[in-house]
Specification:
- With 347 residues, this protein is α+β, with helices and mostly antiparallel strands.
- 23% of the residues lie in helices and 44% in strands.
- The chain has helices at residues 2-34, 97-119, 125-147; strands at 36-42, 44-60, 63-67, 72-77, 84-85, 90-96, 151-154, 159-164, 171-172, 177-182, 187-194, 206-211, 214-230, 236-244, 255-272, 277-278, 284-289, 295-306, 309-314, 321-325, 336-338.
- The strands form four sheets. Strands 2-11-14-13-12-15 form a six-stranded antiparallel β-barrel. Strands 3-10-8-5 form a four-stranded antiparallel sheet, with no helix packed on it. The chain has a four-stranded antiparallel sheet with strand order 7-6-4-9.
- It is rod-shaped.
């Protein structure tokens, strides 16, 4: 009898103990299920820049084509590509067509009479005639050679020959290009932008540049000239840029990538772009976390974008904390569990 009552009492104790454990553990498990694990970002203010990317080409502002002064043959040509030439120095000689024709005829006449003299009987009248004519032909040839000279071509400027169009012995026409000379000290980047960005072009403004030939070099350019007209067809404005303090070789035709800042804000509230969500009515919003770790849906107005950061015009203030990770399934008023330290906080 005593054993039976003991068993009943033990069973009651076990039931009460199990019931208490379930009662005490239920709220804790329920609270954990309601919290969403998130990462947060503290709203900061900083300078923001929006830029456009354009391409330009290195070209020389001072280039000249050296042309032939007359029809003829290039008798001498004393310059090749990649060679520096000096102003007022002789770089070519043109044998004009009239001189070539006259001397060629004279040489043929001398050779013809020389042959006749060699084959004629020295005691005949023809021999004396040929001999006399030969002397006259030689005199006329010498006169032509002395009277009609080759035409010198003088270098018009200091620079490098960047293109040689013809070679020695080539037939050339008057005003035909022989060589192109480039003043390598006048190299600039030439580029253009749509006229709506005209106000962003300021003479003297320094801009980062990347040259395709030197992709790993940090290069700075300065706007040296903004052309005072808009192309009526392309609606673009052209400008020149000089490259500053760069010692590596620059060649005409090299391509450059340029970032033109079109909007600059010195002190803008900003958040990561991926923190901003869009509602079905196209409103932008974020989830802001209060001191009690509750997330609230906050409508915002955004401004410019710089990299992966977006400007906040209204809806947030400095030091507000917003959700940047884990907000995909988050609802307004939900409790959150914050993982780690808020991003954006400056040490």
């Amino acid at each position: 009898m005593k054993t039976k009552r003991f068993h009943i009492l033990l069973l009651l104790i076990l039931l009460v103990s199990f019931s208490c454990k379930r009662e005490s553990g239920k709220p804790e498990q329920s609270n954990l299920q309601k919290k969403t694990l998130v990462e947060i970002y503290q709203v900061t203010s900083s300078g923001m820049i929006t830029s456009i990317d354009i391409t330009g080409t290195i070209q020389a502002n001072i280039v000249t084509d050296v042309k032939s002064p007359a029809d003829g043959i290039i008798e001498r040509l004393m310059a090749r590509e990649n060679q520096y030439v000096q102003k007022d120095k002789l770089i070519a000689e043109i044998n004009p067509t009239d001189r070539v024709s006259l001397i060629s005829s004279g040489i043929e006449r001398v050779e013809e009479l020389t042959q006749k003299v060699k084959t004629a009987d020295q005691l005949s009248d023809d021999y004396q005639t040929y001999l006399s004519e030969l002397e006259n032909a030689k005199s006329e040839l010498a006169y032509a050679q002395n009277m009609y000279k080759t035409i010198p071509v003088v270098c018009p400027m200091n620079g490098m020959i960047t293109k040689r169009w013809l070679d020695k012995g080539s037939q050339v026409s008057a005003k035909e290009i022989i060589i192109t000379i480039t003043d390598m000290t006048s190299l600039v980047i030439k580029a253009e932008v749509n006229e709506k960005y005209f106000e962003a072009l300021k003479q003297g403004m320094k801009i980062p540049v990347v040259l395709n030939a030197y992709p790993n070099d940090s290069i700075t350019g300065v706007i040296s000239l903004v052309y005072p007209q808009v192309d009526p067809v392309s609606r673009t404005v052209q400008f020149d840029m000089r490259i500053l303090n760069f010692s590596k070789p620059l060649l005409p035709g090299m391509m450059a990538s340029i970032q033109i800042p079109i909007s600059v804000i010195d002190d803008a509230l900003s958040v990561p772009e991926y923190a901003v969500l869009t509602s079905p009515d196209n409103s932008n919003f974020v989830f802001m976390v209060d001191a009690d770790s509750i997330a609230h849906r906050q409508i915002i107005q955004t401004g410019i974008t710089s990299g992966n950061t977006i400007q906040i015009i209204s809806g947030l203030k400095r030091d507000d904390k917003i959700v940047v990770s884990g907000h995909e399934m988050l609802k307004d008023g939900a409790m959150v569990l914050i993982a780690g330290k808020a991003k954006g906080v400056k040490e």
